[in-house]
RNA sequence: GCUCCCGUAGUUCAAUGGAUAGAAUAUUGGUCUCCGGAACCGAAGAUCUGGGUUCGACUCCCAGCGGGAGUGCCA
């Protein structure tokens, strides 16, 4: 009887506690199947986990919550793994025993066992659609969030066992090409000979062209003609367009390489331009869309807003727009790739668009009795300028993404040189890159993605306090300890001792919450939950490190502390890798 | 007009409806014979206003106030 009820050492201990509470309440008259344990991590002062479910349950049943809590505790089989107590109005606190910590540390011993423990039961094929810059322009600060958040989510999905397809949905078929082609021809520019920074040249040309057409109706007409020629397949314009795309991709790839991002596909809107006609036909056939003022639009009568606000899928001049290509894209990803889930990582200002897109797709797929992939819009806040307005490309000075990245690397370089005056240049550069890019990534990923923030160099490039380099520093120090003892982290044997000192226990305790942090990050698709957890783990480590000397005479104490270091290192390296932040052995 | 997002220490950010709202930074006092001071320990400092729901509200609902966004042919 106690066999199946006995506590298993789970990656997430709250799972075991929840299961046992459900088992013992299920057959009991006082509780029954409707009892929800509500197991949460507890405040350190009270224990390690708490079950809050007694309070609402007692209220509903008209019982005294403390009495009921007492009853529940009475039903619990004795365990060497925890102590329970009732507190406040009826919280049940679980304080895990040193034995539990010892067993947990023994069981989850390397990246492999962490990964296995975190794996989902049913892996899915998930498309992550992110970054998606427009060709003919440089990537600017506005693109950093999609790129970094998207990559992090992709890594997270992979970590828990999903199959991930990274797709860079390039904006390579917009109206910008009319203006750009016009400018190229008028200035008689050769795209083969744009010098060392071709993308900047293109961008300047576009800006120039944009200025012309604004003031001159005649030039606007000519630019439109170039666009029409391109869309009709004019070979000259098509060749120029392809060349522009190649130049753009070169510049994007430089940034992706720095950031460790690799796409499986970069299909872009142009890929779908010939796939929209059948979509129109199908949606018309199913009476999902209607013609309205010359355009083809979708209304959703059941929706308070979209019953009036149209989703325009074909413009009145017959041309497609991003709604058209997005529809075709969903169909392609489902049919060709069998995607079960599609995640779009874009600016929050596109929320209406995606809401309308998703509703339309669901109706469409439902009519055809096709399985509709799970569609999620992972939106993020705007990066604002000093004036609290979005940083825009057209006016003002857009901050180029490449400049931001390089600036951070330069700042890191100065610090690395300051700390290591004799280090050779190549190693300085290597470390500076990892530290500088880590700082930027962490700055963005450590805050809730849905919030806007005002752009500031200081914020993005900070290297002290709650920052990427702080986490990297802890990793480097752990490596340093292992160098000192001449052992590798995976060579550390289990100590006979469980965590005993205050900071040993606190550190071990924090390690247990890794799984919870992963789950919460997945549930909300918000990497800052993981970032916050890693920061908290790091502060526990730093505290432990300064209060407990690791390399001591007594072997069992030494190995206990070394194993805590090894496990902390493992969690930090896995977690930081999910955030896309590289680590160093020395910094 | 309608819809959505956001108002938390001086500043920048946290807080699956749960116990005394956590950090960073700035200010300030310590650690400084230490396995790496990019560190550690301490002090001080905050939930926009008013109602409501709840055993319990930063969190949910309503009304204000303030900031931002979207709202038919850009993406």
Please explain how this structure is put together.
By secondary structure, this protein is an alpha/beta fold. Among the domains are: 2-96, Gyrase A, domain 2; 175-261, no CATH class; 401-451 and 458-579, Isoleucyl-tRNA Synthetase, Domain 1 (Orthogonal Bundle), CATH 1.10.730. The chain contains 22 helices and 13 strands. The strands form 4 sheets. The chain has a 4-stranded antiparallel β-sheet with strand order 1-2-4-3. It has a 4-stranded parallel β-sheet with strand order 6-5-10-11, with helices on both faces. A hairpin with a 2-residue loop joins strand 7 (289-292) and strand 8. Helix 19 (502-512) packs antiparallel against helix 21. The longest helix is centred in the middle third of the chain and has 25 residues, at 235-259. The protein is globular, with a radius of gyration of 28 Å. 40% of the residues are buried. Mean pLDDT is 93; it is low at 1-6. The structure holds one RNA strand of 75 nucleotides.
